[in-house]
Design brief:
The structure is a single chain. This protein has helices at residues 3-41, 45-73, 75-94, 99-127, 130-161, 166-169, 171-185, 199-222, 227-249, 263-293, 298-304, 306-326, 329-348, 355-358, 360-383, 390-430, 435-440, 459-498. By secondary structure, it is mainly alpha-helical. It folds into 2 domains: 3-187 and 254-421 and 471-508, MFS general substrate transporter like domains (Growth Hormone, Chain: A, Up-down Bundle); 198-253. Helix 2 packs antiparallel against helix 8 (199-222) and helix 10 runs antiparallel to helix 18. The longest helix has 41 residues, at 390-430. The relative contact order is 0.14.
Length: 510
């Protein structure tokens, strides 16, 4: 690589890190602020889910279009457009008057992220040769992880000291710096053979995922026999089935199914689905447990995950370099297994004993597992295809990760709600709470850990209800941890069975 190319590569790496970091910060910051948002807006758990899911829905369903747009019209150009949309939507989130407008603004943020996230990785893939890509991706992973580390801690402090609105407004100075770098220093790249946009495929994917998630979120409150639950689920399944049929028949598919004939590409995407579903579910529920059940402040809750992201940032460059030397199979088997052990620790560690006994071991083990996994996984996806297909490959892998998060939060919401309600009933009965008081609690049940005792309850009953709610929420979180451990084990199996031991031959092409 020439001196000019190296200089250009450094600026591309900086833009990719800032762009991806902005999107990652937003996701992690919002997770920390959700318990406060739920309390201040008087929202149910389903409303809190939608604040996350509206973003994830448009990101996951349109990120493939973002990759196609980047290949067709220029990765730099689409990246800049994504940054502008994301920044404008962040401002709208910061001034939203209530939950409905916040949910809409979050959806627009998802559209912006769908443009900038795949473009950032595609720019990175085009700027570095295959034998240097693993190290570059490792650096990208490490520094975006640092941004993700700062995000929750800063976000928790902002929620506590200023307002939940401030967590969205921190994106604006980041976007300004990012635009300056990209406009002045990042060269344009594109795929000259990119085909037409698959608008029908994008609409079917958005409708299918949106309807499916709506039904899954409504099901715990409405019941599976209610048309509000099974009706949207049926529409979602039908639309997604039509999406697959269309992708097989159209000349210019949004998701070229032929890519999945590549064993490594298919296995790494299945690994991504399992592992990122587990990660999204755990970190959606963790702030609720810390704040509502274990008495953490928002700032302490945000700072609690620092060891994990520090480990990922410190270990990712070495893991990327290791994958360049020995191939991705070993790290993509060991990494998810370690992550699974971390998830299991969340389920078995005692709630008492302070941070060092109840959380730190699980975070450390999970952090090591993710450090071993992230950079080799991203590099394996890019190296599995020709350089001209990397925008599409990046988009597909990002879509899989986001679909995993989207579906996991909805599905795990069902499991966590059911576990919470069963454990709450058991603990209320064991505490001797009067049947009439329990009846008065029914309107509050949809809030889970934010439930408040009825005004007519006695002081003893109020204390019993508060303790029962906290313990039931902790119990539900432990069930989530066990399921996440199973998903991580499935991810490790994908790495062991489906991923090549050395870089695929296609890595040398393009």
């Amino acid at each position: 690589m020439s001196t000019d190319s190296r200089s250009s590569g450094r600026w591309v790496l900086a833009a990719s890190i800032l762009g991806s970091g902005m999107a990652f910060i937003d996701m992690s910051v919002v997770s920390v602020s959700l318990p406060v948002l739920q309390r201040e807006l008087g929202a149910s758990v389903s409303t809190a889910q939608w604040i996350v899911e509206s973003y994830a829905l448009f990101l996951s369903s349109l990120v493939l279009v973002g990759g196609s747009l980047a290949d067709r019209f220029g990765r730099r150009r689409i990246f800049i457009l994504g940054v502008l949309v994301f920044a404008g939507a962040s401002l709208a989130c910061g001034v939203a008057p209530g939950a409905p407008s916040l949910i809409v603004a979050r959806g627009v943020q998802g559209i912006g992220a769908a443009l900038l996230v795949p473009s950032s990785l595609a720019m990175l893939g085009a700027a570095f040769s295959p034998h240097e890509r693993g190290r570059a991706v490792g650096t990208w992973s490490a520094l975006t992880s640092i941004a993700s580390a700062v995000g929750p801690a800063l976000g928790g402090w902002l929620v506590q000291a200023v307002s939940w609105r401030a967590v969205f407004l921190i994106n604006l100075p980041i976007a300004a710096a990012l635009l300056w770098i990209t406009v002045r220093r990042v060269p344009e790249t594109r795929n000259p053979e990119a085909g037409r946009l698959d608008v029908s495929g994008a609409l079917l994917a958005t409708l299918g995922l949106g309807a499916l998630v709506f039904g899954l979120i409504e099901a715990p409150a409405a019941g599976w026999g209610d048309p509000r639950a099974w009706g949207p689920i049926a529409v979602g399944v039908g639309a997604l089935s039509a999406f697959v049929v269309r992708e097989r028949r159209t000349a210019h598919p949004m998701v070229p199914l032929s890519l999945f004939r590549n064993r490594t590409f298919a296995a790494t995407n299945l690994l991504t689905l399992f592992l990122y579903a587990a990660l999204a579910a755990l970190f959606f529920f963790l702030p609720f447990v810390l704040i509502q059940a274990r008495g953490y402040t928002p700032a302490a809750s945000g700072a609690a995950i620092l060891p994990l992201v520090v480990l990922v940032s410190a270990g990712s460059p070495a893991a990327g370099a290791l994958a360049d030397r020995v191939g991705p199979r070993l790290p993509l088997t060991i990494g998810p297994l370690l992550a699974g052990a971390g998830f299991a620790l969340f389920a078995v560690l005692p709630a008492e004993g302070g941070y060092a006994a109840s959380l730190l071991p699980a975070l450390v083990v999970l952090g090591i597992g993710m450090a071993v996994t992230v950079a080799p996984l991203t590099a394996a996806v890019l190296n599995a295809v020709d350089r001209k297909e990397q925008g599409m490959a990046s988009g597909i892998n990002n879509a899989v990760a986001r679909v995993a998060a989207l579906l996991a939060i909805a599905v795990f919401g069902i499991a966590a709600t059911a576990a919470f309600q069963r454990e709450l009933d058991r603990r209320l009965a064991a505490a001797g709470v009067h049947a009439e008081t329990r009846r008065l609690l029914e309107p509050e049940r949809s809030k889970l850990g934010a439930m408040q005792p009825p005004t007519g309850a006695s002081p003893d009953e109020k204390r019993a209800i508060e303790a029962s709610v906290a313990n039931a929420l902790d119990f539900a979180f432990r069930q989530v941890g066990l399921i996440c451990a199973g998903l991580a084990a499935a991810a490790a199996l994908c790495g062991r069975v489906g991923v090549a031991g050395r870089r695929p031959r296609s890595a040398a092409r393009g």
